[in-house]
Amino acid sequence: MGGGFPQSPGVRCTLSGAWQNDLGSKMTISAMNEAGQFSGLYLTAVSGAAKPILVSPLNGSQHVDNLEQPTFGFTVKWSFSDSTTVFVGQCFVDDQGEQTLQTMWLLRDKAKSVDDNWNATTRLR
User: Fold this and answer.
1) How far is CA 8 from the centre of its chain?
2) Where are the domains of the chain?
């Protein structure tokens, strides 16, 4: 939803609740505090890890000064690997009131040495 739809006046984007992406990964975000901080759980549908996928904790924050289409970021500490993923994005509301999260992410694997540093990070959107 790149260029976006016109937004209805007063419609606010709420991160709290259950979300699912087009790959089937699921995320639940708890209520946000006054500072815009939140926590939740993430269950990925895709993984390159040898271990079984487990629900993993997430922690993040969102700008609270403009709740109409806020920017946000959160970190997932994977419970089944030595990897961490950071997500950044924005919540959009279309003219029917449907909310969509658009994100980009960085996945950081554990490097064996400093020489492997650059190979340990993957960027996707």
Assistant:
1) 24
2) 17-124
Asked whether the predicted pLDDT for residue 66 surpasses 90, the reply is: no
pLDDT at residue 1 greater than cutoff 60: no
CATH architecture of 17-124: Beta Barrel (2.40)
User: For tokens 């997500």, what's the residue?
Assistant: 87
For tokens 């540093």, what's the residue? Answer: 117
